[in-house]
Amino acid sequence: MSTATLPAPATTATGTADVATVDTPFGPFTTIVAADGAVLASGWTAVPEDLRTLVHPGLRPAELRARRELGAVTDAVTAYHRGDTVAIDSVPVRQRSGEFLQHAWEVLRTVPAGQPITYTAFAARSGRPAATRAAASACARNAAALFVPCHRIVRTDGTLGGFRWGLDIKRRLLALEG
């Protein structure tokens, strides 16, 4: 992984972030990026406000500026959906939470496409083998879907478990990566 989750700035964000929505085979995909190009939130929705509210209050932009595209970020989203499943790996992401969640999100970025792991294995990789529920919470609280690939985590029995954007999209993502 060439770009890890970036540390959050020390101050509260109140400025403007850029947002763009692109069509994908799985529906509209919207990304919110900070001024430095780091993804703050993303997902399969055409409603940017659905994403803005997912951003930690200390990073949440006061305003969103609509763009047709977001350069390298939009290019990565498009390439990924066309089958280049590593295109998202170098896109910087910025999320903020407690120490475990921050670390767990970084660990999620190391799970290779086409090699889903269980919540139990994810908890172990995150340094807390007994904290399966905390690992699941990291997936549930992930604001940067796709770029922090929580869809690559499955239940012990191989079933999908939850996904903010729906199990159909999770199934399709795993099939694209498989």
From TrEMBL:
It comes from the Bacteria. Pfam families: DNA_binding_1. It catalyses: a 4-O-methyl-thymidine in DNA + L-cysteinyl-[protein] = a thymidine in DNA + S-methyl-L-cysteinyl-[protein]; a 6-O-methyl-2'-deoxyguanosine in DNA + L-cysteinyl-[protein] = S-methyl-L-cysteinyl-[protein] + a 2'-deoxyguanosine in DNA. InterPro entries: MethylDNA_cys_MeTrfase_AS, MethylDNA_cys_MeTrfase_DNA-bd, MethylDNA_cys_MeTrfase_DNAb, WH-like_DNA-bd_sf. It is an enzyme of class 2 (transferase). NCBIfam families: ogt. This is Methylated-DNA--[protein]-cysteine S-methyltransferase. It comes from Nocardia fusca.
